[in-house]
Amino acid sequence: MRLPVGEDEILLAESLRVGLPGETYAVDLVHSGTDGLWLATEHRYTATVLDIMLPSLNGYRVCQRLRAVGRDEPGDT
After folding, report:
1. Mutual orientation of helices 59-68 and 33-42 as an angle, nearest 10°?
2. Which of 1, 13, 45, 62 is the 20 to 30 A CA-CA neighbour of 24?
3. CATH code assigned at 43
């Protein structure tokens, strides 16, 4: 399963990128809310993982905007 992961803390983001594939997840990593929103609208994902305090657009707003355009995959904010 491929997941977009939005995390602005570089060390935590890197540990997620390295650790999740061991659990059979492929990771598309972004460091801002606007990049996360773009990625989630460009590709179809089963789930989305977002940090609440992302720069430029927080995780709640990303979820809100995805829902507004009919994207209803589960999110873990």
Report:
1. 30
2. 62
3. 3.40.50.2300
Domain total in the chain: 1
CA distance 77 to 68: 17
Neighbours of 50 (CB within 10 A): 26
Write out pLDDT tens, residues 50-63.
999 999 999 999 99
Detail the DSSP E strand segments found in the chain.
2-6, 26-30, 48-50, 75-76
> 13-45, pLDDT tens digit by residue?
999 999 998 888 899 999 999 999 999 999 988
- Once rounded to an integer, what is the mean pLDDT over residues 59-76? 84
